[in-house]
Amino acid sequence: MGDAVSLSSTFAGFSVGKIGFALLIFFLAIFVVMIIGGGLFYWMQRKKLKWTIPLYKKIGSRVIRIATYKAMNYSISRAGDKLWYVPKVKKYIGVGSLQSGANEYSYFEREDGEWINFEIPDIDTQMKQAKVKYLQQDMRSQRIAISNILDSRFANKQSWWDKYGNLITYTIFYLVVAISMVVIFYQWSNITDKVGALFDRMVAYEEKKDSCIQGVVPAFVMLSLRWKTWRQ
Amino acid sequence: MEAMIFFKWLGFATLIILLISGVVYWIKVAFHKWQYWLKYKVFRRKFNKEVVDFLAEDLKNGVDAEEMFKAILLSGKATLNQAREIRYIYKELKRRYKNE
Lengths: 232, 100
Fold this sequence. Notes:
The structure holds 2 protein chains of 2 kinds. By secondary structure, chain A is α+β, with helices and mostly antiparallel strands. Chain A contains 6 helices and 8 strands. In chain A, the strands form 2 sheets. A 6-stranded mixed sheet of chain A has the order 4-3-2-1-7-8, with no helix packed on it. Chain B is 85% helix and 0% strand. In chain B, helix 3 packs antiparallel against helix 4.
């Protein structure tokens, strides 16, 4: 413990006696135990509370879900009898047998306060038992009739594109042609100017040339000479 | 070295507290199990007359103690401890009834 006294002086900067050190250890140990115990308790409770109980009740004239609880097993005897305990409301309920989800059993609170396990009924079977058939046949024919009426109502109606599609296509076509024509005629003057200059230069070239070689294409001269040869 | 001594004492104290807590827990469990035996056998308390009258009919009909316990819990009219006490009284009455 002598070491411990010097330890406390080293760590805290003030000196405590042996009793102080013992108390420090004691309270720290209690704190550690509380943390371990609390964690274990929380983990065990979570493991125990594995049943989900959605509770329904008639409020006014409607059945609504008023809460969702968690329940745990409570064994009655060694014979295997058990109940479910709902800690939040401190209530024991009968073990559910009608499941509505994974580990979930729906309960209904009766007017006398007793909780009854129930399941959502098969509405189709109930209607069959009550010989109500309009959902299966009458309504289906009704839907077909509505579909036919809609078909006949809208069969001859042209869509917007059907009505104006040709007009829009032709308009676009003529616009494109007109723009192309404008571009072509705009460029035409440039082309003629350049061709005119080219012809002027060709004429000037021809005039500069030797007088024995005439014509725009001198190669034809040779052809004419050969022609004379072939005729002989 | 000083830190080692500190944690050694801390571990030792934690262990002692855990042991004491365990012993206290099991004493509590034993007390819960034997509290009615202590109350009625050791301290010689008498059964509540109202409870005995209430149980008389079930006793004649030979209802099982556990079934009765279950019914009491499901009724929501009694706490777990009250239901356990009634079960103890019922078992005792049943034993005496058989002996007679």
